[in-house]
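Collaborator request, handled under Task 6.
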Amino acid sequence: MTPPPPVSDAADPIEALIAQMARLPGLGPRSARRLVLHLIRKRSQTMTPLARALAQVAETARACRICGNVSMAETCPVCADPRRATGELCVVEDVSDLWAMERGGAYRGRYHVLGGTLSALDAIGPEELRLPDLAERVRAEGITEVILALNPTVDGQTTAHYIAELLEPTGVRLSALAQGVPLGGELDYLDDGTIMAALRARKPL
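Structure tokens returned to the collaborator:
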């Protein structure tokens, strides 16, 4: 794949925009050019509203102080909703996994975003993730079940085992997503029905 061209302050504004777009996941230089051309042609319907939305999100988006979800306020809508205080806490690797779970609509509890998984190769230990906060939340919020919705990778399984040992003193019930999640798959790429089936068929650890 051809790498995106470097971005220069002195570059033509259109070429600079193309270069920035080409850095986004899933977009290469050709796709970026087509997208920018579309935006220019439909600037009043697409480019101007997009620029406003980007500026607003860049200014105000932050991590939820409780779960780590992306929010426009200190506390995300999920954590702020008293109806979500079911005693269940779903642990996910990333915000994209939380959003994938929410798309299915089957889960009505709260979340805890780790921010990744344990990885010796990448020097990612418990302190680099939100693992200490997880144990504190279980105790402080009266959590009765922790659902590990981690991707079925080697690092995901390593993290799941670590969490099981970390939470063992609390006596909380642990479960994990079961059928429907393929080995090596990632939640963000699964369809809503698969996620719903996996959530409903979770099993004790």
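The cover message to the collaborator said: "The CA atoms of residues 67 and 112 lie 5 Å apart. The domain at 70-204 is CATH 3.40.1360.10 (Dna Topoisomerase Vi A Subunit; Chain: A, domain 2). Please let us know whether this matches your experimental observations."
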